[in-house]
Amino acid sequence: xxxxxxxxxxxxxxxxxxxxxxxxxxxxFIVALGVLVFAPVGIxxxxxxxxxxxxTWELNVAKSKFSPGPxxxxxxxxxxxxxxxxxxxxxxxxxxxxxVTGEWTVVYDGKDRPMTGxxxxxxxSVKQTDAYTTEFTQKKAGKVVMTGTRAISKDGKVxxxxxKGTNAKGQPVNDVEVFEKR
Length: 182
Hints:
This protein is an alpha+beta fold.
């Protein structure tokens, strides 16, 4: 600071330049702090909003396979970004004509998270294998009952969910559900 004052007094630096020299380090610090704080948030939001699962999906019963049956009459799934998670909801009509709903959370960390609306499972864990594919595990009372994959076509229009395991009635399950994006 003394050197700056000497330079101003000596006429090397105009007096009007001195306040700008003092402000520059603080302004640089504030800009850098803003980038460090908000850039990761923006990157996270951009990554989640481009997740191909986000949106509304309609089950194509004719293209799907359910073993054991009966096949559901309809199902609509909605996946929406909620902070750092994706909230999923399901509404439809089962094979007997009964209205059914379900909810679960998608986080690609492989940790168990609660799910509702299924007699077969009460927990779900999901891992992402690439931008379009995930592997999942469903548990009931801590025991693995189903495993599978969710694959979304490269054009983002078709989602195929393959599930194998045992349902709540003790029957083997081998389902292939085909959903189309609305």
